[in-house]
Specification:
The chain is mainly α. The protein has helices at 3-16, 22-40, 52-64, 69-88, 115-129, 134-149, 153-157, 187-205, 228-239, 250-263, 268-275, 280-283, 291-301, and strands at residues 164-165, 170-174, 180-184, 206-207, 210-211. Strand 4 and strand 5 form a beta hairpin.
Length: 305
């Protein structure tokens, strides 16, 4: 079988058999198309000619091009998943990716915004929303919900109006692998969401061409579902003048929510469930940025603190 065709079949199986999201499938395709192009440069087009050294050379070339360790690790994982699938499908007899190792990614602590800085952000958003502009009312609801729930930006823009239960203060989100979970949010977020749904969303639905029928919760200027890029731009603009280094996208609010929950004494497994992490180990990184909680526990529990 041609490698290019096998890549198409494998990516198609990710959605149909494993329920992967379009974004995840797209990432696999990007990695494997890079591999396919690399192999074509070596006149390797058939799957049964693929060897371990070819995979290693492809990763080495990626390293020489300055690709980050985390990206190299992702490419290695994509290649292993692909060759394992080839073996299961009977396309190849031996799996050349079994012994393909990934570089250990550099560990860096996520950026966390202080409560004081968040207070200033919410104060500015509230002042803008008070003027009644539908976009400003929507933006306040977005930031309140991102921080209150710790949901991913993709989960936020995927929400429909009926995903919310404003009485129970919960939202039904669809996460990675199309797995659904219920996340809580607080009264400030509920108030901002209620104002948005009642006042701003009907105005955003109305365009020069007329109302656009959609179940989407958060709408853009043209009345359709708000996209991820718009939310990135919003959060980045709000964090631009806030002290701290590291990424300034919506994930920073997710990191911040998790860390503040642990600082407040929340159980690690509860935070894991709220964030939708498959592994507790992924959630444990937030314990490293929750030193105030660790110090308080130590002073309370240790006899010689």
């Amino acid at each position: 079988m041609l490698i290019a065709r096998a890549v198409d079949d494998f990516v198609a199986s990710l959605a149909s058999e494993r329920g992967f999201s379009p974004n995840t499938s797209k990432a696999y395709r990007s990695d494997l198309e890079s591999l396919s192009d690399f192999l074509a440069g070596r006149s390797i087009e058939e799957c049964d000619r693929l060897e371990l050294d070819d995979l290693r050379d492809w990763l080495w070339k990626s390293t020489e091009q300055g690709m980050a360790k985390a990206s190299i690790s992702r490419r290695a994982a994509s290649a292993r998943a692909f060759t394992s699938w080839l073996r299961r499908m009977g396309v190849i007899e031996l799996d050349p990716g079994v012994r393909l190792k990934s570089p250990k990614p550099d560990k860096s602590l996520p950026r966390v915004v202080t409560e004081v800085s968040l207070d200033s952000i919410f104060a500015a958003l509230t002042a803008r929303a008070a003027l009644g502009g539908p976009g400003d009312v929507r933006d306040l609801a977005i930031i309140e919900l991102l921080y209150a729930s710790g949901m991913r930006v993709s989960e936020l823009v995927g929400l429909d109006v009926d995903s919310l239960d404003l009485d129970r203060l919960t939202a039904m989100v669809t996460g990675k692998g199309n797995k659904q979970r219920v996340v809580p949010f607080g009264s400030p977020a509920a108030s901002a969401l209620a104002d948005y749904i009642r006042q701003a969303r009907p105005l955003l639905l109305k365009t020069p061409e007329g109302a656009v029928p959609t179940s989407a919760l958060f709408l853009g200027a043209r009345g359709g579902r708000l996209n991820v890029r718009s939310v990135y731009q919003l959060v980045a603009s709000l964090l631009a003048d806030i002290p701290g280094t590291g990424p300034s996208g919506p994930h920073t609010l997710r990191h911040t929510a998790a860390t503040h929950l642990l600082d407040g004494g929340a159980d690690l497994r509860v935070v894991q469930e709220m964030l939708g992490h498959a592994s507790l180990g992924t959630t444990q990184i937030y314990t490293h940025v929750s030193m105030e909680r660790l110090r308080a526990s130590y002073e309370q529990a240790h006899p010689r603190a």
